From TrEMBL:
<dbReference type="Pfam" id="PF00293">
    <property type="entry name" value="NUDIX"/>
</dbReference>
<dbReference type="InterPro" id="IPR054105">
    <property type="entry name" value="WHD_NrtR"/>
</dbReference>
<dbReference type="InterPro" id="IPR000086">
    <property type="entry name" value="NUDIX_hydrolase_dom"/>
</dbReference>
<dbReference type="InterPro" id="IPR015797">
    <property type="entry name" value="NUDIX_hydrolase-like_dom_sf"/>
</dbReference>
<dbReference type="InterPro" id="IPR036390">
    <property type="entry name" value="WH_DNA-bd_sf"/>
</dbReference>
<protein>
    <recommendedName>
        <fullName>Nudix hydrolase domain-containing protein</fullName>
    </recommendedName>
</protein>
<feature type="domain" description="Nudix hydrolase">
    <location>
        <begin position="14"/>
        <end position="147"/>
    </location>
</feature>
<dbReference type="Pfam" id="PF21906">
    <property type="entry name" value="WHD_NrtR"/>
</dbReference>
<dbReference type="InterPro" id="IPR036388">
    <property type="entry name" value="WH-like_DNA-bd_sf"/>
</dbReference>
Length: 226
């Protein structure tokens, strides 16, 4: 980007702007992030979030959706801005400011793919990351904290649960994201206060314990409760 200084008439070159997209999933009892492995350049063999530079003819949101599709083969999901990362030496290739985005998805509904610049694409446990490029480990850590806060006042967990589910299944999702065990009574009291669920008025049978009541989300799109 070039900016003309009206006093000196010199051209000032500003930093480039990029977007990086953090996609979370819960599977096999773990919170995972979708990562791609770089196959060449200064970050060869390190892992990174899907990302890229913003074009001059697109918005930040458009750029995030484009790079997610081009570099991970995923589209049609709700993305939310996470944070801006602008440390001077975050990228050895030049001065680049990153606007990060994040989302929570069910990985069973997607088949990620990537480009020739990347040698692999996989879901990796968010708390046990492989060697990371740039400051993407920091972005993931920030995203985990945002997700943990967000489940306290939204229905964002809908992305990980089927149409019908038990409260025990929902509690397990919360425990994986929060990284701790929850008291059953307090958890259900909290859900009642959030008012994001409604009973299906039917039971799930065939479990080892007694039949469990089934629930569904009032809305399967993001809702803020406060």
């Amino acid at each position: 980007m070039r900016i003309k200084n009206s006093k000196s008439e010199k051209l000032i070159f500003g930093p480039a702007v990029a977007v990086d997209v953090l996609i979370f999933d819960v599977n096999n009892g773990k919170l995972n992030a979708l990562l791609i492995r770089i196959s060449k350049g200064p970050y060869k063999n390190k892992w990174a979030l899907p990302g890229g530079l913003v074009r001059t003819d697109e918005t930040l949101d458009e750029a995030a959706k484009r790079v997610l599709w081009e570099k991970a083969g995923i589209r049609g999901i709700y993305l939310e801005q996470l944070y801006s990362f602008g440390e001077v030496k975050r990228d050895v290739r030049g001065r680049i400011i990153s606007i990060s985005y994040f989302a929570l998805v069910d990985s069973a509904k997607f088949q990620p793919r990537t480009t020739e610049y990347y040698s692999d694409i996989r879901w990796k446990e968010a708390k046990k990351l492989p060697p990371m490029a740039f400051d993407h480990g920091k972005i993931i850590a920030f995203g985990i904290e945002r997700l943990r806060n967000k489940i306290e006042y939204t229905n964002i967990a809908y992305a990980l649960l089927p149409k019908e589910f038990t409260l025990t299944e929902m509690q397990k999702i919360y425990e994986i994201i929060l990284g701790k065990k929850l008291d059953k009574r307090n958890f259900r009291k909290k859900l009642k206060m959030l008012n994001i669920l409604e009973p299906e008025k039917k039971m799930r049978h065939g479990l080892k314990s007694r039949p469990a009541e089934l629930y569904r989300f009032r809305k399967r799109s993001l809702v803020f409760t406060k």
